[in-house]
Amino acid sequence: MVSLFGQESVSSDDVVVSSDAATRTLSVVSVETGFVRRVYERISSVYDLIYGWTLHPGRLQTIKRLSIDTDDEVLEVGVGNGINALLYPPDCHVTGIDLSHSMLEGAQRRLDRHGVSNVRLKQMDATNLRFADDSFDLVYAPYVISVVSDPVAVVKEMHRVCRPGGRIIVLNHFLSEHKVLGRIERLLSPLTVHVGFKADLDLPAFLAQAELDPISIEKVNIPRIWSLVTFVKH
Ligand SMILES: C[S@@+](CC[C@H](N)C(=O)[O-])C[C@H]1O[C@@H](n2cnc3c(N)ncnc32)[C@H](O)[C@@H]1O
After folding, report:
1. What order of strands is seen across the sheet that includes strand 93-98?
2. CB of 72 sitting under 6 A from ligand 1
3. 169-206 residue pLDDT tens
4. Rounded to the nearest whole angstrom, what is the distance from the C-alpha of residue 10 to the centroid of ligand 1?
5. Which of 189, 176, 171, 143 is CA-nearest to residue 48?
6. Structural domain boundaries of the chain?
7. How far is the CA of 142 from the centre of ligand 1 (A)?
8. Atom of ligand 1 nearest to the CA of 171
9. How many CB atoms lie within 10 A of CB 68?
10. 47 lines ligand 1 (CB under 6 A)
């Protein structure tokens, strides 16, 4: 784990913040929200096959780290077809939002099948959350930030609806700091957007442009090329 941003330029094992991070583009591709919605309407029926078990170790590692308390109000941004919904403790209150109607239908079927009653679902755009400021103890975006059209707007909305002292959690793959891998991810990104994500989201640029300082960044999943980024709202 590392803490960041005590100074203007910080290097660590996990992240290097250079002086142009606040202005450079986050990815070589940009996508509109309508495009993302159409992609997820199209892939919803095969989502579990592609992203179910492959990304599950990171979901399990994260839920352990979250240590959710009884009666905590949790917001899951981009709840998808509800894979995480089964992992929350039954005594917290979860609101799951997603853009895609088909993904939410899948989530509702999953909740019904498993008799989960502490998760409610709403169709909503994460760039414009219809919740009051300071509404949630925990705001969690698993595998979503590199999917949305505007990652900075989304994390700012997550921050807004989180209560002071609450946590904002981003679980995501970011551009590799390894030069060759990073180049490959940049080359692949125009293709991967058609299956639902950008492969080259730039973490230091994302943090600088969101003007948020994480308290920790941990590598998770297998292989450990996904990051669990934790912020606390002051
Ligand atoms: C890769 S899936 C992640 C689903 C789930 N969190 C998981 O762990 O499998 C990304 C989800 O984000 C949703 N999404 C994309 N853009 C969104 C937006 N602007 N607002 C809300 N949800 C969005 C997609 O519809 C999709 O269900």
Report:
1. 119-123, 93-98, 73-77, 136-142, 162-173, 226-232, 216-220
2. no
3. 999 999 999 999 999 999 999 999 999 999 999 999 99
4. 31
5. 143
6. 33-232
7. 8
8. 8
9. 18
10. no
